[in-house]
Amino acid sequence: MNVGILEMVGQKGGGFLRRRETGYQPNQRDQSIPAAVVRQFNLRPGDEIAAEPTRGGRGRRGGGPQVQIHTVNGQDPAS
Asked: What is the pLDDT of residues 13-31, one digit of tens each?
C-alpha cells in the first residue's frame, strides 16, 4: 500500500502520491491517481491518501492505471 500526499499535475485533473520517504519530492515510484478517481472521491491537493494499484490493466476507455483508495485523511473515502 502507498501512503502519500496528493499533488495534482497537469490540466486533466489527475495527480500523484508524494511519499514522506522521498521528502514529498517527485519520484518515479510515486502512485498515480487518475482524474476519474480524483473526481469520484472529491480529492484535493494536499489530501493524505492510502491507496494501492489494482489488477485488471486498463480502464474502461483504455486509459491509464487503476487504483483502490483505502483512506483519505485517515477516513474511509465512502463516508
From this structure: 999 999 999 999 999 999 9
User: Cα–Cα distance between 1 and 70 in angstroms, integer?
Assistant: 9
**Residue whose grid cell is 490493466:** 57
Residue 61 scores a pLDDT above 60: no
Element (DSSP H or E) covering residue 36: helix 35-40
Query: Under DSSP, is residue 40 helix (H, G, I), strand (E, B) or coil?
Result: helix
Alpha-carbon distance of 30 to 26, in angstroms, equals: 7
Task: Check residue 30 and report its DSSP letter.
Answer: P
- 62 pLDDT more than 80: no
Closest CA to 15 of 39, 38, 48: 38
